[in-house]
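Data deposition worksheet. Section B asks for the primary sequence of the deposited chain exactly as it was used as input, without tags or linkers unless they were present during the calculation. Section C holds the resulting structure in token form. Section D is free text for depositor observations; keep each observation to a single sentence. Incomplete worksheets are returned to the depositor.
Section A, Depositor: J.P.
Section B:
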Amino acid sequence: MAHPSGAPAKQLARAAGLPLATTYHLLRTLAHEGYVTKLPDGCWVLGDRLEGLYARGRAQVTLSRVRPVLVSLRDELGVAVYFAVLREGEISLVDVVDGPRERRVDLWVGFNEAAHATAVGKCLLGQLDEDGRREYLARHPLLDLTPYTITDRGALDRGLAGRDGLSLDREEYALGTACVAVPVTDGSGGLVGALAVSCRTERLPRVRSEGRRLQEAAERLSRLAALS
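Section C:
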């Protein structure tokens, strides 16, 4: 799908070269059959009858189920929200939502090349065993992205998660930006995922203090995966 995070009908009509009325008719037909779903923000995404956005073991979750959880967390905390998973040994960003107050981080370096410098990446690395982590980092060197980026393997291992269970990035990926992440699992080892939020660095203490809300949202995603 050319628009993995969904797209409004007008954008899909332009991309397909179809009249808007025809596009709406096709979307309604596909929605009736369960192949697409219209989200509250007006975007159309793949429905539950099509392939899940990620799969490891038997766990699958579609964007139509993920997006409402992310939107709710964004509205509660006023931050940009991200959901990513490990798929075939690489980090895949499933969805991201933001708003006028806190825009999403400009991903000038991909998550796989910057796992050591992002809360999302640290959270996912922390869910791997030692062999899995060593293999991943052998393929993705610890690039120096900002003056605060951790490039020492031992220091990285010690800082994958704090005592409160939160993985943090304090300007390690981009100056002026901080991120917080928590794990998302399906309860049976079939899913390795991370739910994260980003904010301006000065807001980090307040956002971190709301860690329980982030964990509750992660638990909602975990339940969706367990039921898939």
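Section D:
Residues 81 and 197 are 4 Å apart (CA to CA).
The chain has two domains: 9-46, 55-227.
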